[in-house]
Amino acid sequence: MTVLRPPPSQKSSAPRQPPLLLSNPEMVSQHTPCTLHHSVLPPELACDLFYTMLDAAQGWSRNKWWLFDRLVESPHRTSFFARLHDGVDGDETWQEAAQFWYNGRKTEAPQPFPEEMEEACKYIEKVVNDELRKRDRYALEWAGNGNDGQCWRANVAAANCYEGAKETVGFHSDQLTYLGPYPTIASLSLGTSRLFRLREVIPSSETGKRNARTYNIPVVHNSLTIMHASTQERFKHCVPPQSTIDIFRPSYPRRIKGASSEREQNIETSNCRINITFRFYRPDYRPHTIPRCKCGVPAVLKPDMKGRSDGPVHDAKTPSKDPNKFSVNAAQQDYSIRYWWMCYAGAQSEGKTCGMWKVMDAEAEGRGPFVGPLPGSHASSSKVTQED
């Protein structure tokens, strides 16, 4: 008896690629829209900042929010810090953003940057702004400059403490509510080494044509990972659990309290990683400009990652045949993407939401200044070269 079977499918599935370890800065730049910088702070400052944040972390809390009708708790401790004077804008109401709303709820007042963090900002801001001057920019990036002529300033920082090998954070992209489109986020690692994992969100239009690849970046003590423009629009990131980690032994012991020039004799080891993500809360996304939903809560701004349309590479000199590779020197790849405002009250009210949703209209909302002209009512965006 002949068994009837359907004819073989003519549609070939895209090959799955194994995770790739990006073991050096060159590989990070080649495969992702990020850059990796080692030894960004003077060694003594890196140790002093680690000790300061490690002590502060004893009082940090674990975020709680509602997800799919159940209350969940983050498997790491976190806290917010705000800079009193950021040198970009005289209106300091952006501090309200850090203070009052996170995951759909009001929070306690943020801590001011401690002395060591202020000192670290001098180095980090220089690295970030130097990188921005090298890169092609997206039209919707912030184009304003501060009093010192710098475009990017760290006026808010989210700090996380991962103790041991099992404390983690799951895959996510950062909310853009106060950052605006195409933000630059500088992530400083202190203490024990962990993996920082990135995975692209494949647009719906490319489903079946290619699969997302996972990239693992080892982030060591005193290293800075800069998530450049398009990272939050194209990728999600996480800190995965590990089977083992190396115990961190600082290069310098603690300073003796009350005697800043003297240090203790013994060096204490640690199994903690301190992560400080320095962010630039844009003046054109001040709290009073953020739409509120019917719940009375500020909406959150998110990119339509699945609905974006990735355009062709236009530079014939350095074409990339590998769709998973990203090159800042390769040409202008266009991303047509929409951003939307949506209710986020459900994160704190047992998952209940008013369902508010609307597309961001940067021009109608009075946002800017931007690097390039607004490319349409749906906030489509394309890169602008440094020569433009």
TrEMBL record:
Annotated protein name in UniProt: Fe2OG dioxygenase domain-containing protein
Compositional bias of kind Polar residues: 378-388
GO biological process per UniProt: DNA alkylation repair
Compositional bias ranges of the Basic and acidic residues kind: 306-324
Any one GO molecular function term: dioxygenase activity
InterPro entries with a match to the protein in the record: AlkB-like, AlkB-like_sf, ALKBH3, Oxoglu/Fe-dep_dioxygenase_dom
Organism: Schizopora paradoxa
Fe2OG dioxygenase domain: residues covered: 153-282
Family annotation (SUPFAM superfamilies): Clavaminate synthase-like (SSF51197)
Tree of life domain: Eukaryota
Disordered, as annotated region: 1-26, 306-326, 368-388
Entries under Pfam families matching the protein: 2OG-FeII_Oxy_2
